[in-house]
Design goal:
Layout (H helix, E strand, L loop, with lengths): L11 E9 L3 E8 L2 E8 L5 H16 L8 E5 L5 E5 L6 H5 L8 H19 L5 E2 L8 E3 L5 E3 L6 E2 L7 H4 L23 H21 L15 H10 L12 H10 L10 H18 L14
Helix pairs in contact: 3-5, 3-8, 5-7, 7-8
């Protein structure tokens, strides 16, 4: 990593905790009078955690796109930290689980287009990158409710000298969003089309939220699927998917089904998906006759 990205700990001001996981805690803070999010590594004694953390900050330093959370730099002492853009509206997941949040067709199409653009940025990197953990929890909303993809801790290169075949074949991420070909029995590697599968599940999650008026986690409709491993087993072996609500427009349903097709070759690439979604957005603007619940909010809450 270039020294240009090094930030001194004394240049940061720490605020409240925004969230935390097993390996890191994220604070709201400030850097050069700019609001930022500061991700602090917890377990420096764990070599794999530190390796993954360094991989994440290196990847973030290579990415430049409006749909990717902005990377300011990193801190080495007294702890490893990543300093990045602060998104005041939190994750898309935490937004859509609120019953009074504004979830409309306009917003769904906008968010999905931004997701596709961000993923296209990853897939067009030289060498190419795959995210490997796309989900609504890893999509942030900035002040204007634009999508910012985050959490690149599991992202890996699929080509070039930095390609890691052993890592790419390991099942990672959140299984409800994980492509069926990645089931351990198939011994397949993550590819760009694996990320597209995740996009299909995210689209379903948003459409289902709008139509039903409340959020449901993918596969939560199935009482026999209580554990993550059961989800990936059913998705892979029995081609089971979340049920697309009948109120979903056929054109939207077709896109979802293409994205989560069992055959990766039938899924669109990120650039094609972006164009498909733009056409859907244009189609919706002309008619605006897609199903919308009568109690749908008319303004941002």
């Amino acid at each position: 990593m270039s020294s240009q990205w090094v930030i001194q700990h004394t240049d940061l001001t720490f605020g409240p905790v925004l969230g935390q996981g097993l390996t890191a805690v994220v604070h709201k803070g400030s850097f050069k009078e700019q609001e930022v999010a500061i991700k602090v590594l917890k377990l420096e004694q764990q070599q794999q955690d530190l390796k993954d953390f360094k991989e994440e900050l290196f990847i973030m330093s290579q990415l430049k796109a409006h749909e990717i959370v902005h990377f300011y730099g990193f801190v080495i002492e007294p702890k490893w930290m990543i300093v990045m853009e602060f998104c005041p509206n939190g994750s898309l997941y935490h937004y859509i689980i609120k019953p009074n949040s504004e979830v409309t067709w306009e917003r769904i199409l906008k968010w999905c287009i931004e997701l596709a653009r961000g993923i296209n940025c990853l897939h067009n990197c030289k060498p190419a990158l795959v995210h490997r953990d796309l989900k609504t929890l890893n999509m942030l909303l900035d002040r204007d409710f634009n999508i910012k993809i985050c959490d690149f801790g599991l992202s890996r290169y699929t080509q070039g000298n930095q390609r890691d075949d052993a890592t790419l074949v390991k099942l990672r991420g959140t299984y409800a969003y994980t492509a069926p070909e990645l089931h351990p029995s198939f011994k397949k590697q993550y590819t760009a089309k694996s990320d597209i599968y995740s996009c299909g599940v995210i689209m379903w999650e948003l459409v289902n939220r709008l139509v039903k008026g409340k959020h449901s986690k993918p596969y939560s409709e199935f009482p026999d699927l209580k554990y993550d491993f059961q989800v990936i087993n059913q998705a892979s072996m029995n081609n089971r998917r979340p049920t697309i609500p009948p109120e979903c427009p056929n054109k939207v349903k077709e896109v979802i089904e293409r994205c989560w097709s069992k055959d990766p070759e039938e899924r669109p690439n990120a650039a094609d998906l972006c164009n498909i979604l733009k056409n859907l957005k244009s189609s919706y603007k002309k008619k605006k006759k897609w199903y919308t619940p009568s109690n749908s909010p008319t303004k941002v809450k």
